[in-house]
Amino acid sequence: MTNIEQAELFKILIVGAPGCGKTSIIRRYTEGHFTPNYKSTIGVDFATKELSLSKHKITLQLWDIAGQERCGAMTHIYYKSAAFAIIVFDSSRKQTLEEAAKWKNDVSGNAFLPNGKPIPMFLFANKSDLEPEVSQESIEEFSQQNGFVRWFFTSAKEDTNIDEAMRTLAQDLIELDIHPINREGVNLRDNSDQVKKKTNSGCC
């Protein structure tokens, strides 16, 4: 990617089971505060955050997709032109880790880079301020088995690792040479003649 004055825009999906703290993570990162009484997201919402890395100015467009939306009719629209995804689970509720695997498979089957490969993903073990039900060893094994680029313990309440993880994500966007989208949401190097048509992965 070249050095340009306008920030390069990247669409980032934030998905996971209901109640895992996706909205809290986004609000903490983009607004710098935590509110314990967020209502569950209905449908989809997004927020943006701009940051500078060396010669690059990057805008992360963080899409907060409701936990009930997996496999919904609008999924392919929500995922369009995404560059990266963060799968969130609640480390104090073991069952949400199983949900994380389903979300990972759903994103892998519906969100692709221009070269036809699934978009890369991070795993967030959120609510690390609470008593864990999942060990670090189990998360590490899960992350490796499911092909996550990296994983992080996070806490929106205590502001643990969120800035660090997002900055690492931005660095990975550059190092992996993932291309930005324009302000209309179109990948700047997408070539429909070279990208194979992808079908729904058959989740649910």
From TrEMBL:
GO terms for cellular component: late endosome; lysosome; phagocytic vesicle. PROSITE patterns: ARF, RAB, RAS. One of its GO terms (biological process) is endosome to lysosome transport. Pfam families: Ras. It comes from the Eukaryota. SUPFAM superfamilies: P-loop containing nucleoside triphosphate hydrolases. Gene3D superfamilies: P-loop containing nucleotide triphosphate hydrolases. InterPro entries: P-loop_NTPase, Small_GTP-bd, Small_GTPase. Keywords: GTP-binding, Nucleotide-binding. GO terms for molecular function: GTP binding; GTPase activity. Belongs to the small GTPase superfamily. Rab family. This is Ras-related protein rab-32.
